[in-house]
Design goal:
The chain has about 140 residues and is an alpha+beta fold. About 20% of the residues lie in helices and about 45% in strands. It has three helices and six strands. The relative contact order is 0.22.
Amino acid sequence: MDGRKTVSSEDLKQYFSKDLFAQHVGIELVDAGDGRARAKLSVADHHLNGVRGIHGGAIFTLADLAFAAAANSRGRVAVAISCSIQFINAAAGTVIYADAREISRNKRLASYTVTVTDESGTIISLFQGMAYRKKDPLEHLGDA
């Protein structure tokens, strides 16, 4: 907790509602806190690529938002320094989810794995992210 109160899921949802790109794409932060986060995307026609599958950029963006929420859930500003994604399966259905979890964390660095699944629970991608943890607290989160 780094000497700070845990940031609530509602505070994180409010904070990440300012992510205009994720909002434009249609990503919703469902839950977050204590080094974890869940986000979802309801797939629309504009999320599809030329072969009518979900565009890899849409999947990456969903995973990236879940990663960001998990990394910032400790109340300090955390920014990505490295990310990678592997596409495992094609998605089925109209909703995909990204579940981020903290793998390790120290004073300056933290590592996260994000599993992206479709609504049947099939894994469609695996995302790995490394975050640099700044000293700055997240702004406008009360005591966090």
